[in-house]
Amino acid sequence: MIDFLRGAPVAGRLDVVWHAGWPSPKHDPAPEIQVHAYTEHTVILRQNKSVHYEAPFLFLLFGEDRALLLDTGATADPSHFPLRETVDRLVERWLERHPRPDYALVVAHTHGHGDHVAADGQFADRPRTTVVGPSLDEVTEYFGLADWPHRTGELDLGGRVLDLIPGPGHHRAALVFHDRHTGLLLTGDSLYPGRLYIEDRAAYSATVDRLLDFCATRPVRHVLGCHIEMTGTEGRDYPVGTTHQPDEPPLQLSTDHLRALREALDETSALHGSHPRGSFVLVYRD
Asked: In sequence order, what DSSP letters do the residues of 110-175 get, joined into one string?
């Protein structure tokens, strides 16, 4: 058995240069999906910007009984975005090192926007696989999240437990995942180095408070969102639709950025539009 508790939260590797597209997308020599092993049991994937400018990050976490694939990217067509093939290969390699029968897969989402659910259909006929729908009813029913969004939940992958924190504001069914094994806080589009689109400012503000309260009593090594849209210059983002970002900052943020986000929300509470704040840009859409 794998001990996911010993030494938790374990350190992982983020000494990676994320592929940020190519000057000519049609001539990009890089694969459609970049794969990085954060730990032996944790994989971070990024869709190539030459395939889709959103270039979302996806996460594959292995437990004793099943794995979790978090988000399915921005492209449905497997000939352009072979996510199922990539995940199957990663699962097969993991099982070669850790053999066990009837290993399952859960496909879930940080939220239901199109650039995070597009390849769900690639997993529709995969054996021993559950695809959790992205609607609020589907999310709350599958994860047992009663009294949404006021109570947290848990997802046990078999010895590896994730905390589930309701995160509406950017999307009404957004969910933040905290992995106790690695201490990663997977925030989807609620916080990342880029444009933070706020659809419901009251719900979003409550989500930030909820995350701050959670992090006050839990070890968090890194905050990982699903995009990089900023340049290496504080407060300056790449234009929407950019397919080559040679001056990207790192993906990882920290709980300090959550506190900075709280301050930024307070400072702009009566404003509208876009407001650059260092490592991110607040974009009010109400």
From this structure: S--SHHHHTTGGGGTT-TTEEE--SSHHHHHHHHT-TTTTS--EEEESSS-EEEEEE-TTSSTT-E
Structure tokens at 270: 């009566």
Radius of gyration of the chain (CA): 18
- Both tokens of residue 213? 């309260």
Degrees to nearest 5, angle at CA 58 with 147 and 237: 95
Q: How many C-beta atoms lie closer than 10 Å to residue 259's C-beta?
A: 13
Residue with tokens 């497997």: 78
Amino acid (one-letter) located at 180: R
What are the residue ranges spanned by the domains of the chain?
25-284
The per-residue pLDDT for range 74-94, each reduced to its tens digit, is 999 999 999 999 999 999 999
Paired with 188 in beta bridges are 225
**116 close to 56: Cβ distance less than 8 angstroms:** yes
pTM for the predicted model, two decimal places: 0.98
The closest of 196, 141, 139 to 172, measured between CA atoms, is 139
What angle (nearest 5°) sits at the alpha carbon of residue 208, between those of residues 203 and 209?
95
pLDDT tens digit sequence for 98-154? 999 999 999 999 999 999 999 999 999 999 999 999 999 999 999 999 999 999 999
d(CA 111, CA 132): 11
One of 1.10.260.40, 3.60.15.10, 3.30.160.40, 3.30.230.10 is the CATH number of 25-284, namely: 3.60.15.10
